[in-house]
Amino acid sequence: MNDKDYYAILGVSKDADKREIQKAFQQKARKLHPDVNKAPDAEEKFKEVSEAYAVLSDEQKRARYDAMRSGNSFAGYGAASAQNPYAGARAARGSYYGGFGGFPFGGMWGEPRRPSGRGSSQAFSPEEGADVIIDIELTPEQVKNGARKAVKYRRYEPCEHCHGTGSVSSEHAHTCPSCGGTGAMDVDMSFLFGAGVFQMVCPECNGSGKVITDPCPDCGGTGREQVMSEAVIEFPPGTHDGGTVRVKGMGHAGTNGAAAGDLIGRAHVAAERLEGKAQQGFKLMGFAAPFLLLALLGGTFSLFAALCLIPFCFGAGMVLREVPSHRSLIWLKRGLQVFVSGLLNALFYVLLLMWFASCTRGMYYYRPFYWW
């Protein structure tokens, strides 16, 4: 269970009865509903109020919440925790089914925060670790002959104390006593706008249906901790700018024993990389080229030709500043690709300009300019 004070959120005392809780929720829900309250944090507060009501309006959930706040994870349930006290909660994580075909307000909940600290259970949610991407500088000689690069980076690795399980002593996670393992909780809101019953993600297990009752104090129950690692990435000959090399299993470790991600080394070759002003220069030249060609072919558009020549020369200057003589053929090839892309973008406007010119001269049936 998370550390939120549901009583404070609803503004009721700890010994408030079910009627007082329902009345407090109804008042706050009407004020904080996103369709009524346009404040930036109204939706988030409305979610918190609804989550608080979902727990405190049910006697078993409320007893479970009070027990969790006192430090006893499974107090108040006994043998009943093996059963599902909330029959009918079969929705998948993040899905909501109201009595009238869906969540009555058309909203979606954000994921609850994961619990922290001792004396409370931790959600058991194995997720595969993410990849770690590192940019590595290579010279043209290293591109040609290949290179081995040692890197030092920060990543998550399995916790040494719990061996990646997230649990100190238990080998397996327990069924969540709040939702009975379904990952969802029923909330009766039939008294509010006639909304009926809808389901929300269980705030204790985060929708996984399982919890860890004795989370590891070193990793907080996630099964991993952050460390500095070292690895060697080998780039084969012929690796160009943007090329990647993948090292299996050297990325972030997964949570609760899930598979680890990969370490990805991405080559960064300055002589081949087209970026910044040079890229903008090629694109500007390509965009100005069709207009300049049209102006030169027209003959009478001398002023227009001068205007088109200005951006073309400006783009050429941006390219020349990058000293093309120190660049490779791949850099030039990429520049030509950007040039062609800009040219094709400008071609549409050139054809449109030609069509307008033909209309102003009365050439309505001149086939090269009459497209429909």
In brief:
The protein has 372 residues and is an alpha+beta fold.
Q: Can you characterise this structure?
A:
There is one protein chain. It is built from eight helices and ten strands. It has helices at residues 6-10, 18-32, 42-56, 59-69, 140-145, 276-298, 302-320, 329-360; strands at residues 122-123, 132-137, 147-158, 174-175, 184-188, 197-201, 210-212, 224-235, 244-247, 263-268. Strand 5 (184-188) and strand 6 form a beta hairpin. Helix 2 (18-32) packs antiparallel against helix 3, helix 6 (276-298) packs antiparallel against helix 7 (302-320) and helix 6 packs parallel to helix 8. It is flat and about 85 Å long. The model is unreliable at 73-119 and 363-372 (pLDDT under 50).
> What fraction strand?
15-25%
Rg to the nearest angstrom?
A: 32 Å
Across the major sheet, the strand order is: 1-7-4
H-E string = HHHHEEHEEEEEEEEHHH
- Average pLDDT score: 75
Report how far apart the termini are: 68 Å
Say how many strands there are.
10
Structural category: alpha+beta
- Given the C-alpha coordinates, what overall shape results? flat
> Which residue ranges are poorly predicted, with pLDDT under 50 across at least 5 consecutive positions?
73-119, 363-372
The helicity comes to 25-40%
| Count of DSSP H/I helices | 8
Q: Biggest sheet: strands, sense, closure?
A: 3 strands, antiparallel
Please give the structural blueprint.
Elements: H1 6-10, H2 18-32, H3 42-56, H4 59-69, E1 122-123, E2 132-137, H5 140-145, E3 147-158, E4 174-175, E5 184-188, E6 197-201, E7 210-212, E8 224-235, E9 244-247, E10 263-268, H6 276-298, H7 302-320, H8 329-360
Parallel strand pairs: 2-10
Antiparallel strand pairs: 1-7, 3-8, 4-7, 5-6, 9-10
Helix pairs in contact: 2-3, 6-7, 6-8
